[in-house]
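W.,

You were right to be curious about this one. When I first looked at the sequence I had no strong expectations either way, so I just let the prediction run and decided to look at it fresh. Below is the sequence, 127 residues in total, followed by the output.
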Amino acid sequence: MILSILVLFIGVGTAFADPITAQTSSEDKIHFVDEQIMIMADISNNQDTQQNFAYITQVKTDEDVVVSLSWLTGSLSPRQSFSPAQSWIPTESGTYHIQVYVWESIDHPSALSPPLSMTVNVIERQT
């Protein structure tokens, strides 16, 4: 595996991913409509050569509708680690499925690590 994804942070909650199986589990955390959620992972280049990457986050509803798709690109030196993050602000309550991908580039979608995924529930804030 070229890159390993170590930890995915959703808001204050966390999900841990085994770098081989990409299984995730999360702490129960209440997320609110119009509250920013940070989607972050620690990635590492375990090679002896530089590696370009695209860090992609996708958020879908229970109905499989993509409500957010964002990415950033960069390059990691040998043995370098980085913690990219993308923010998302849900505008409606519901159950959302978040997926994180690390690819060679947007134009060359070759996976550098298994994808991570988790589910978050978003509710209206009671006043």
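Here's what jumped out at me. The CA atoms of residues 32 and 125 lie 6 Å apart. And, maybe more interesting for your project: Residues 1-27 have pLDDT under 50 and may be disordered.

Coffee later to discuss?

I.
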